[in-house]
Amino acid sequence: MTRFLTLCALSALVACYTGGADSSNDDGFVDGQNGGNASPDADNDEDGFTNGEESDAGTDPDNAFSRPYEGGYNVAGCETGPVATGPTGTARLQSSGQTYEWPTLVVGDIPENFTLMDQYGEMVDLYSFCGKHIMVAMSAGWCAPCRALARDMQPTQDTYRDSGLQILEIITDDNAYNQPDLNFLQGWADYYNFDDIPVLQMNALDADGDGYTDSLDHLYFWFDADGYIPSVYHIGPDMKVVSADASIYDPGSFL
Asked: Phi first, then psi: what are they for 145, rounded to 5°?
């Protein structure tokens, strides 16, 4: 395991981090049409894809979260749910006599939707994978254990895709501790032979560029319970967290 904030001494954390369900049971998932314009040229859910395009892709034209992605991801899609709890846990880490705390997702929590750019330049929603088992991995270019995990991701996705798995690889930093750009995301996907795994760009923690992380209440920290990466979370088909940063890299026990 690699400590995420090792090279920026954690005592200076704030200063140096720069770098098809049953539609009759009201479960929040959808498995087909919900009315609306049946024309193949219409876009019922206003997601940018026509009903005909969605029909060809096997996605739901009445559900904006269920849409085709260039990466061919294992899409299902939330309709109106679930009701997010957000992070209800508190992570704590001590360094150099100081204690740092941040909100983090714990088992039983339901994360809010997030939207991040993938290696194709498309914006990908977490809630596009409601109804699937989602394995979220927080990684960075400079992190050797993260790269070791990435080597196994596509074989894992291939093994369990038909059982309902979708892996999401989120890159927090490039090799130089900067926010990864599109070229870096593409290079990561190519190097590790990702066929249907999105490589997602983490939103910048230091958006104003002043050398300070803007807030510990941030998407990255929600998926980090101990200050080390890779951080791997497992989210069940009902969008509840079933494993929170417990170093479980094989989703087989959940499927």
From this structure: -60, -30
Judged by DSSP in three states, 107 sits in: coil
Convert the pLDDT of each residue in 117-147 to its tens digit. Answer: 999 999 999 999 999 999 999 999 999 999 9
Q: What angle do CA 62, 203, 165 make, to 5 degrees?
A: 50
Tokens of 47: 């997601």
Per-residue CA distances from 189 to 150, 157, 201 (Å):
9, 14, 12
pTM above 0.90, yes or no: no
Contact 13, 213 (CB under 8 A): yes
For 225, the token pair is: 């319970």
**Choices 3.30.360.10, 3.40.30.10, 1.10.10.10, 2.30.29.30: CATH for 2-19+82-254:** 3.40.30.10
Residue percentage of the chain with pLDDT more than 90: 61
CA 144, 190, 219: angle at the middle one, nearest 5?
60
Q: Of the candidates 223, 12, 247, which has an alpha carbon nearest to the alpha carbon of residue 138?
A: 223
Q: Where are the domains of the chain?
A: 2-19+82-254
Q: What type of residue sits at position 230? A: P
pLDDT tens-place string over residues 28-70:
433 344 445 678 888 888 888 998 988 888 888 888 888 889 9
CA 208 to chain centre: 24
